[in-house]
Amino acid sequence: MADQSIVSALVLGLIEGLTEFIPVSSTAHVLLAEHFLGFSSPGNTFPVLIQLGAILAILLVYFRKLWEIATALPSSPTARRFVLTVLIAFLPAAVIGAAAHGFIKKVLFETPALICVVLIVGGVILLAVDRMTFKPKYRNIMDYPPMLALKIGLFQCIAMIPGTSRSGATIVGALLMGADKRSAAEFSFFLAMPTMLGAFVLDLYKNRDVMTLDGASLIAVGFVMAFVSALFVVRSLLDFVSKRGYAVFAWWRIAVGLLGLAGLWLVG
Q: Which residues, in sequence order, are CB contacts of 187 under 8 Å at separation 6+?
């Protein structure tokens, strides 16, 4: 591995961890950074596979709650309903993601101008939603009904377009469906676990023939950096959005999208 590739993998892993759970689209940030750094991976596996580091960060932060839910499953209808709602929310993305995997990786991942435009449009939408006044009906993720979970899961499917943001789509969907800001962000964390793990397994399987030792080593570097940086975000995001909302992320999306378009125009 060249030193430059290792540095690029570290930078991309840092970007992945810092942006995965905030509504700015980690995939868009990583793909744009790859483009301008001149970094590539066989089958575009790197942006997807390093997400496992971010998954492990959630598992670590929420281990106690996950353990409580797991041990309560035999006796608690509330715990069983919560697990069911997460699985229901995951199903739409599982079906559509498996069916459209080739188009997503070979077309959408390879169109940086589209990614920039989607970042800007998503920022405008997020800014509008943040300024709306909602009367939340749901403040605890354990009380989310299955139909609400299904609607959030359908919103998550929009995030298959790079630049949309998986967390942004699920959070906006939850807010529009009656959730408060904090529980919307927390449910997005839990929904990320099966969604990102499913994407990891599918991408690894689809690209098993093009993986190399050097490629796997770079993925490991990015994975570790994504894990460390995601820990910081997961531990601090809920309090931040509860107090300040999502406007700062909306403006960030718009700025990155505009800078990306400017960079593409200047250097290609």
A: 89, 141, 144, 152, 170, 174, 179
C-alpha torsion sign, points 57, 247, 166, 62: positive
Tokens 């377009």, residue?
Answer: 161
User: 3-class DSSP state for residue 101?
Assistant: helix
Q: Residue 186 and residue 61: Cα distance in Å, rounded?
A: 12
pLDDT bin (cut points 50, 70, 90) of residue 4 is low
Q: How many domains does the chain have?
A: 1
| Structure tokens that stand for 102 in this block | 């080739």
Q: Mean pLDDT, to the nearest integer, of 167-191?
A: 91
Give 71's Cβ-side CA count (13 Å radius): 6
Range of 156's domain? 3-267
pLDDT exceeds cutoff 60 at 98 = yes
Measured over all CA atoms, what is the biggest interatomic distance in the chain, rounded to whole angstroms?
61
Q: In which band, very low, low, confident or very high, does the pLDDT at 3 lie, cut at 50, 70 and 90?
A: low
Query: Which among 68, 75, 93 is positioned nearest to 198, based on CA atoms?
Result: 93
Q: Are 207 and 42 in contact (CB under 8 A)?
A: yes
